[in-house]
Amino acid sequence: MALLRALGPTLALCALAEWFIIDAIVSALSVELVDGAPGRSLRHFTAGLLLSHFAFGRLLERTAGLLAARTGERVTDTLRRMAGLDLATFERLEASALIPRLTTDVEEVRSFATGLARMLRAAAALTIGLGYCHALSPTAALIAALVLGVVAVIILVGHFERDAHLGRLAAARDGVQRLVEDAIAGFVQLRQHRPRRRAILGEVRRRSAQLDAERDRVSVAFVETHAQERYLLYFGLAICAWFLIQLEGRSPTAAAPITLLVMYVGLTQLEATRLLPQAMDAQHAWRRLCAALDGLGPAARAPAPPPGRPDALPERPSRVELRGVCYRRPSTAHRAGFELGPIDLILRAGEVVFVTGENGSGKSTFLKVLTGLYRADAGALLVDGRAVGPEDMSAWRSRFASIFSDFALFDRLYGVEAVDPERVRRLLDELQLGHKTAWVDGRFTELELSTGQRKRLAMVAALLRDRPIHVFDEWSAEQDPEYRAWFYDTLLPRLAARGAIVLAVTHDEDFFDRADRVLHFDAGQMVQR
C-alpha cells in the first residue's frame, strides 16, 4: 500500500492518458469527420500519446527508485546484523545461503521495476477502459469483466504449473552442474580409470536428457497457456458483438466501437496478467530476502559503559590477564560439543608466547576467545587491570592483528587511514612478493597466489595495521625454510622489541627456544611449559 500511495500521482496521469486514448479511438469510430477537420479524436489521441509517454517514463523512474531503495535498505540491514553477530553465532549460520539472497534475489526484485510499471499502467488502462465501456454498454462491460476474470484464472493456474515444472527443471540443472563440477574436480582420477570415466559420462548424458525433457515440458506448458488466453479473448469478443447486435439491437456500425474497446481492454489485461508470473517470482524473492534478514535476529547494539567509567581501552596494553575464563560450545547435529578452560593467564608487552597442542585440543578456540571473537561463558578479561566488559569488545577486537588458518585476503587495507607506499614496497620485497604483486592506487594488484605466498601477503597486511597484539595461527606451515626462519628469528623478535604481545600457534619444535613461554593445550585444558 505504501508503494501505491507513493506512485498515486503518477498513476493518475497514466489513467488520464488512457482516457484520452480510449476516447479518441471510440470518437474516431463513432463520429464522422466534418470537412476533413481532425476533430477532437485526433487532439485527444495526440494528447494521450504525449501524456502516456511522459507518465510512463515517470512511473518507471519512480518504481525503479522505490524498489532499489527498499532492497538497498534490506541489504544494508542484513549486512549490519551480520556484522553484529559474534563468531560462534555466525559459524552456526549457513552463510553461503545468504549470498543468493543478497545478490540473485535482490537483482530479481530490482529488475521487476519495468514489469511493475507496465502492470500498474495496464491496471490504470483496464480501470478506465471498463469504466468507459460501462458508460457505453453495461452488458458489454459485464461480458468483458467475466471473460477477463476467466483469463486471469487460467494464467494463474498456468503459473502454478509452470512453478512446478521450473522447480523440477532447477533440480535437474543443479544435478547436472554438480556432476560436471565433480568430474572436473576429479579429472585426475577419471583420467586414470576408464570404467569410472565412462560411468560418470554416462550419468551426465542421462541427467542431461532428463533436463532437456523437463525444459521441453516447460515450453509446451507456456505455449498452451498463451493459446488458451487468445482463444478466450476471441470468444469474448464474439459473445460481446452478438449481445450488442442481437439483444441490444445495435447496428454493426454502432457495435464496432464497443467491441473494439473490449478488445483493447482485453489486450491490456493480457499484458498485465502475463506479467503475473514475473511479479510472483519477484514477490517470492522479496520474501526470501526478508526471511533471511529475520533469521539473523535483531541488530546487535553494544551496551553503553557504566556512568563514570573511562570510555577507551589502552591503545597499547602492557598487561592482559585472563581469570578463570571458560567457553562452552554446545553440541549440534554436525559437530560435537567442546569445553575450554578454566584458563588463568597473564600476557605482557614484549612477550612471545607459543601455543601448541593436537588438532581439536582448543588452540584456535582459545585464540578466538582471547581476541573477543568468541564470547566467554565465565571468567574475566582484564587489560592493564581494567575489566573488559561487553561494551568494550569492539574496541578490544581492534587491538589485534590476526592471521587465522581460514584467513581471507582483500586487495585494499580497509579501515587503515593512511598507508605509506614505500613501507608496503619494503615489506613486499622482504617477503619476496614484489615480483608477484604491487601496491598501486591503494590496492594490491594481484591476489591469485600460492598458499604460502597468500600467507606472506596476509602478513604484510597484518604488519601494516600496526596493532599492539599479534596472533598467528600456524602461519609458518606451508612456508619454505627461509621464510620459516625469518618468521621465528626476525619477525617475532622485531615485534617483541616494539612492545607487542605475540601469540603464535606452532608445531615447529626446533624453534621453541625462541619463545618466552609455551602454552600447551590438551582437551580444552591449558598447561604452561
What features would you describe in this structure?
- This protein is an alpha/beta fold.
- It has 15 helices and twelve strands.
- It has helices at about 1-30, 40-85, 85-90, 95-110, 115-135, 140-185, 185-190, 195-245, 250-275, 275-295, 365-370, 395, 420-430, 450-465, 480-495, and strands at about 320-330, 340-350, 350-355, 380-385, 385, 400-405, 440, 445, 470-475, 500-505, 515-520, 525-529.
- The strands form three sheets. It has a six-stranded mixed sheet, sandwiched between helices. A four-stranded antiparallel sheet has the order 2-1-4-5, with helices on one face.
- Strand 11 and strand 12 form a beta hairpin.
- Helix 2 runs antiparallel to helix 4.
- The longest helix has about 55 residues, at about 195-245.
- The radius of gyration is 35 Å and the shape is elongated.
List low-confidence stretches.
32-37
Strand adjacency order, main sheet: 6-9-10-3-11-12
In percent terms, what proportion of residues is strand? 5-15%
Q: Mind telling me the C-alpha Rg?
A: 35 Å
In short:
The chain has 15 helices and twelve strands.
List the helices and strands and how they pair.
Layout (H helix, E strand, L loop, with lengths): L1 H29 L8 H45 L3 H6 L2 H17 L1 H24 L1 H48 L1 H6 L1 H54 L4 H23 L1 H20 L23 E11 L8 E11 L3 E6 L5 H8 L7 E6 L2 E2 L5 H5 L2 E4 L17 H10 L8 E2 L2 E2 L6 H14 L4 E5 L7 H17 L3 E5 L11 E6 L2 E4 L1
Helix pairs in contact: 1-2, 1-5, 1-9, 2-4, 2-5, 2-10, 4-10, 5-6, 5-9, 6-8, 6-9, 8-9
